[in-house]
Design goal:
Helix content of chain B: 55-70%
Number of helices of chain A: 5
Distance between the termini of chain A: 17 Å
Largest sheet of chain A: 5 strands, parallel
Strand content of chain A: 15-25%
Distance between the termini of chain B: 173 Å
Helix content of chain A: 40-55%
CATH architecture of chain A: 3-Layer(aba) Sandwich
Strand content of chain B: 5-15%
Number of domains of chain B: 2
CATH architecture of the largest domain in chain B: 2-Layer Sandwich
Oligomer: heterodimer
Structural class of chain A: alpha/beta
Number of helices of chain B: 7
CATH superfamily of chain A: Response regulator
Strand order of the largest sheet of chain B: 3-2-1-6-5-4
Largest interface: A-B, 17 and 24 residues
Radius of gyration of chain A: 13 Å
Strand order of the largest sheet of chain A: 2-1-3-4-5
Structural class of chain B: alpha+beta
Number of strands of chain B: 6
């Protein structure tokens, strides 16, 4: 059966990326594409349409906040939900990310059920 | 009509004088009139009585109908009461079943949550182990070790200490969130009170010498990241082993702001790190010493003959 939803994971840490992909593999009908920094993320976004985007903040070349800004002016993905997943846990960081257009903010270390629940919520998946 | 004198009639008692026909007729008419009048009155009485009785019969019939309805209603009521009792019993039975199902559901939910947690823990361990052993390049192994502590455990500042060959001191080989040059070399087996932060280094030395991990639960409750991490007591010190030998110590100085305490998965990761970090590090150092040459079949043959009887 083909995937109903597609998700882009932008994360420079291979360990974290693998963990996120592992967690997201438990969401039915969700195809996951990986990008290892913001620029790679933009490249993947230009090549296809995604239903949800998960991104880290601290990444080389282009960080997650710049990526969110770019996403919000991209005609194809401007309304696509974005989840920030980061080690930065301060209220200011959270506020800044949400002001830039992120839909949710999850701090590391992640709990897989929390990520899955947030992705399902934003994709309006009830099962 | 001639009037009759009272003296004359008593004198002539034995001889009945002939009745006056007119009088007789009058008497007859009077009698007939009276008779029919009384008959009419009697008939009227009878009719009235008949009417009264008929009304009574109607009343009685009405009462009878009412009583019969009442009786039927009472019967229906009794049946309804019986039905209510039956339904009450059914309700109780269903409520009991609902409670049982709820209890089962709660058990399943709890078990599901436990399974989710276990799966999450296993995923963390799998990913950590996979990444740690996926390369023999020293730079990548050190990066994976740092990421493991930062991303999976939530350590803000940490360092990896490894003992020198003579096992006389512990040397920091990699660190994150703390200036590497500020980390002291820690002499082993010789107390050095002049060393800055002697108490801190004593903890690290003790963990190396005893192989018993040090988790500072009290330190976890304190706000972190305010002082220089290397100046404060570490949050955790974990021995790194290869087989039974302790080869180094992982020191966690502080945790991320949002990380308030260690959870079950952290302790599993500590165990994994204790057993695998040093192996991965030493493997990569051996590989570097071999100038990046991967051993071929010959090396396995050589090992087989050296060990003897290896299958």
């Amino acid at each position: 059966m083909s995937a109903e939803f597609s998700c882009l994971v932008v994360e420079d840490s291979p360990m974290m990326r693998q963990l996120l992909v592992f967690a997201l593999s438990r969401v039915k009908n969700l195809k996951v594409v990986e990008a290892d920094d913001g620029v790679d993320g933009l490249r993947k976004l230009a090549a296809g349409k995604f239903d949800i985007i998960l991104t880290d903040i601290n990444m080389p070349i282009m960080d997650g906040l710049k990526l969110v800004k770019r996403i919000r002016i991209d005609p194809v993905h401007k309304d696509t939900p974005v989840i920030i997943i980061t080690t930065e846990g301060s209220v200011e960081d959270r506020k800044r990310a949400l002001e830039l257009g992120a839909n949710a903010y999850i701090t590391k270390p992640i709990q897989a059920p929390q990520v899955i629940a947030k992705v399902k919520e934003l994709l309006k998946i009830t099962t | 009509m001639a009037e009759k004198k009272p003296g004359a009639s008593s004198k002539k008692k034995s001889v009945r004088p002939a009745a006056d026909p007119v009088e007789l007729k009058m008497q007859r008419d009077t009698f007939v009139h009276t008779f029919f009048k009384k008959g009419a009155e009697f008939t009227e009485d009878l009719l009235r009585e008949n009417e009264r009785l008929r009304r009574e019969v109607v009343d009685v019939e009405e009462q009878n109908t009412k009583l019969r309805t009442q009786l039927k209603s009472d019967q229906a009521m009794r049946e309804l009461l019986k039905k209510i009792e039956f339904l009450e019993r059914e309700k109780q039975k269903l409520l009991t079943q609902v409670h049982e199902v709820e209890a089962v559901s709660t058990r399943f939910s709890t078990r599901y949550a436990e399974m989710e947690e276990e799966l999450s823990t296993l995923a963390n361990l799998y990913v950590a182990s996979y990444q740690l052993h996926s390369t023999l390049r020293p730079k990548l192994v050190l990066q994976h070790l740092r990421e493991l502590l930062a991303q999976l455990v939530g350590a803000r500042a940490h360092a990896f200490y490894v003992a020198n060959e003579a096992r006389t001191e512990l040397v920091p080989v990699t660190s994150d969130g703390v200036a590497h040059e500020r980390l002291p070399r820690i002499p082993l087996g010789a107390s050095n009170p002049d060393l800055k932060n002697a108490g801190l280094t004593a903890i690290i030395e003790r963990v190396f010498l005893t192989g018993v991990e040090h988790i500072n639960e009290a330190r976890l409750a304190k706000p972190q990241g305010l002082a220089k991490p290397e100046d404060d007591a570490p949050v955790a010190c974990l021995p790194m082993r290869i087989d039974d030998a302790i080869v180094g110590v992982i020191v966690i100085y502080s945790l991320l702001e949002q990380k308030e305490h260690f959870v079950a998965v952290d302790y599993e990761l500590f165990k994994m790190l204790g057993a695998h970090a040093a192996t991965a590090l030493m493997g990569t150092l051996l590989f570097a010493n071999a100038e990046g040459r991967l051993p071929g079949f010959e090396a396995i043959e050589h090992l087989r003959s050296a060990v003897g009887g290896m299958k």
